[in-house]
Amino acid sequence: MSRDALMRGLRALPVNMRTVLVLRYFDDMADAEIAAALGIRESTVRSQAARGLAKLRAAADDKAAGPTGRGTR
């Protein structure tokens, strides 16, 4: 996935998922730090991160499948 595609995927996510992913992977914050900064539980941080990553993966898979759904290879 290119950086541009990643950024488009992040922008398409709900703001809570996007915020957690940005803080975790771009700002390198721990789950406890993210939870404290956002006023949410650590378990919520983990679930939002997992769901956000799943959505990004699904979007990447859809993109890789191309318009025919057969992939680009």
Structural features:
4 helices, 73 residues, elongated, mainly alpha, single chain
Spell out the blueprint of helices and strands.
Blueprint lengths: L2 H10 L2 H12 L4 H8 L3 H24 L8
Helix pairs in contact: 1-4, 2-4, 3-4
Rounded to an integer in angstroms, the radius of gyration calculated over CA atoms is: 14 Å
| Amount of beta strand | under 5%
Low-confidence stretches: none
What is the element string, with H for helices and E for strands? HHHH
- Total number of strands: 0
Largest sheet: none
Describe, in short, the structure shown.
The chain has 73 residues and is mainly α. The chain is built from four helices and no strands.
